## 1
Amino acid sequence: MSQRNLRVVLNSRPGVNGEPIEENFRTEECAYPHEDLLENHVLVKTLCLSVDPALRCRMNPNSGVHYMSSWQVGEMADGLAGVGIVMESCSARFEKGDFVTSTFLWPWMAYFTYPDSKLLTISNALIKSKPSLSLGVLGITGLTAYVGITQKGHVTKGSNQTMVVSAAAGSTGSLAGQIGKLEGCAKVVGICGTNEKCTILTEELGFDAAINYKTDDVSKRLQEVCPTGVDVYFDNVGGDVSNAVIKQMTESSHVILCGQISVYNKDVPYPPPLPQEVETIMKERHITRDRFLVLDYSEKFESALQILGTYLQEGKLKVKETISEGIENTGKAFVSMMKGGNIGKQVVHVADP
Ligand SMILES: NC(=O)c1ccc[n+]([C@@H]2O[C@H](COP(=O)([O-])OP(=O)(O)OC[C@H]3O[C@@H](n4cnc5c(N)ncnc54)[C@H](OP(=O)(O)O)[C@@H]3O)[C@@H](O)[C@H]2O)c1
């Protein structure tokens, strides 16, 4: 069958200290996968793609992380996750029409063939009706928020804890704040980059207060809204915002070191070293700040997804998404998300089932 196929290619590198731009990516036509499928392979049509901050390191010649390699200039890029539908199957595990996601990594390609060992069937009716849920709340960012809080947050019901979340209007942050409340925090405060995002946090997502780090004095506002200090900090950003939060943390409190997006366009080690003054506070107040990578907790995923699904169905978790249309806009969506253009999960819608 001759059918149009498209893929997204890394066009150029931004440089380790450069901001990614749309022109770092290009979309090109490519061959529609041959239908004489190999044994144990399936032909998949991509429905939606995830763009994630963690991909930034793959734009560098050396990704610097053990779990993902760099993208090569002129070659197809792939993301952390995607959802697709099986078009043809030569596998006992999959039938035409099955909804699938991958164990890890998803080609930025409209149609592709894949070994069945790299795919997982989606049976959840909720995801079938809205596939993008599998990229956010019922995927990596939901798991990151839930597992991060339950493994590293030391949240205890009834102990009047205050949690602060940075990048709070993003995918992980918007869920982390809500999960913090559900797990028992008395107060949750979000920090984010626009007034519109602040309003969504407090009026739609149940945050008790929100701070715009671009226009507010973060330290002053934290003192006002967290008068007893910060007991749990879900840190997505690092840098000045996080230094200001840590300075107001209580004795034996906990930083959930989820991400440090403020330095992803800088050539610094991960996690970046803290200023001496902040390091001293961490030691004096016995604040924990362990490195956290959700992929290290795969044994928790099944039970966590069940809990997240229940929260969702009971209306206890609200989901925000920013949808970009078309595979050719994948690079643009990634660049926009890195600059704060998204509210909730940044998704690329490629095709309908
Ligand atoms: N540890 C893990 O296993 C794991 C897994 C998944 C994700 N993460 C991390 O979690 C964080 C959030 O990821 P996500 O996928 O949910 O993305 P996201 O929060 O949906 O999108 C990224 C957000 O970061 C904010 N941002 C960008 N530059 C910033 C800066 N210089 N200072 C402060 N905020 C900035 C922007 O919002 P504003 O408008 O607020 O600036 C943007 O919307 C990232 O650090 C990511 O690496 C970690």
## 2
Amino acid sequence: MKIKLHWKLTLIFCSAILVGLFIGCFFLTSHLTQRFEDNLMTDLNYRLSLGKNFLESQLSSQNILPDPINLANQIGKEQNLRATIISPDGVVLGDSDLSAEEIKNVENHLHRPEIQEALKNGGGKSTRYSKTIRKYLLYMAVCLKKEKLAGFLRYALPVSYIDILKGEQTKIIIASLILVFLLSLSFTFVISLVVSRPLVEMGKIAQEMAKGNFSKKPDPYGQDEMGDLARALSYMSDEVKDKLDLLKQETVKLDTVLSSMFEGVMVVNEKGRIILMNLSLRKLFLIDFEPENKAAIEVIRNPQIHDILEGILNKKQQIISEEIDITQPREKILRINAVPIMKNEKIIGAVLVCHDITEIRRLEKIRQDFMANVSHELRTPVTCIKGYAETLLDGGLEDKERSKEFVNTILQNSNRLETLISDLLDLAVIESNKMKMVFSPLDIKPVLERSLGVFKKSMQDKKISLTIKTSENLPKIMADDKRLTQVFVNLLDNAVKYTMEGGAIKIEISCNNNMLQVDIADTGIGIPEKDLPRIFERFYRVDKSRSRELGGTGLGLSIVKHLILSHKGQIWVQSTQGQGSTFSFSIPHI
Ligand SMILES: Nc1ncnc2c1ncn2[C@@H]1O[C@H](COP(=O)(O)OP(=O)(O)O)[C@@H](O)[C@H]1O
Ligand SMILES: [Mg+2]
């Protein structure tokens, strides 16, 4: 049960006050009772001496009291107590509580303790049960003397009467104590409330602080301990707020860094549950839900990644760097680096960084393939040249007919080498973006006509018909004359090369939207569907030996593609095997 502070303080104060009051009450009542008894005795003694003086003044010359019954009644009435007048030999002469008849029957009082004591000391007292009036009484007696003993005056007071007086006195004391207690209770309650109020307020402020609300500050409660506490709380609030702001900034920084990272990052705790996963990793594994607090293996269902995490968390390895191939959700090659997070030499989690190296590996493969292709393409004509040259030297020169044939082959292969080297150089320059292009407004038709001139003879030889379809007012394009010619030459070369005798080439130049489109269609051998996506790759040829025979290098289309792209254009192909191909490109016009 929660007891509020001011109630606790009230309870403590009240208990202390109560204990104090009880002790005080005990001492006060015993002291006052004593004082009361003393006062009563003094008062009775005084009243006794008054009675004694009065009676002694009434003594006759014979030392006798006239009419003692009346005198006793008079004194008893005046003093409001029982007065008895006794003769020196103990005979009761008068009694304020008894009639004259009763007095006669009263026994001798000489041996009563108070009378005996009075005889000895002039005065005496005694408390005992009175058979006459059936009550406990306090008796006080004094000698009456003129020249010699004339008798005794005795007062009797019921003890119960004294007790009643004492009881009343105690009642008054207790009533005042209760009053004091009630007053102090309300007083202490108010004081406790005042004392505990700042604490209660500071408690509320601390609770607000815990919820992240730092706007409330405790009032400055003076220079005492409460003030110190309020100032400390205020200082703490500022400090915590600053630290939290700093922490937030750091978190934002970390978030920004993590989310802008190309690498995937995941942090797990010692149980393998995800604490953090950045955007790249989520994208990589197509995670569209919040992965935090879930087991890593449930989120990334890859046994190799799971093994790496296990290895780190179970202290099998300190650092793991592995290359893995994944098939889900997409085929990728990943390099995974994982390290443990240590605290007091204990592993409390692991960090896993995931690099997508698919593209790097792909480019590496392309480079390797390219090198292999280049070496192969160069070796073939060089071997041929070398072979024929050796044959000529080994006596082949004597046979004039054959030597001419050999030299022709050497020349053919040298030309082939030259074309290959020239294409390779072109490609290298284009790919390294070092090709100098001079863009100027250009009419496309003269460029086409100039290019067609190169193939006039070969087309005639192969009886290939040519159709050109253009509109009159074609807009100009921004292009490099020499490079655009190179594009036409390459595409026309292919069209002529891969079209059989009697075939047809149809060229159409059209203008749609803001592009100028050129379609070069032939009725040649066509390209199989499976080869179409790769036709613009370097050295990619449908039929290598056929291409080589026809003097091709396999670099033409890839050079064309690069050139078209540098003109901000696009190139594509449509083809049906055995029926023909249509190579199309578009370049923005002015
Ligand atoms: N018009 C075409 N008809 C059929 N196949 C073609 C045509 N143009 C290109 N090709 C195919 O594309 C390949 C690549 O062409 P290219 O890069 O110009 O190399 P090359 O002409 O030196 O063989 C050719 O080997 C050929 O298989
Ligand atoms: Mg070609």
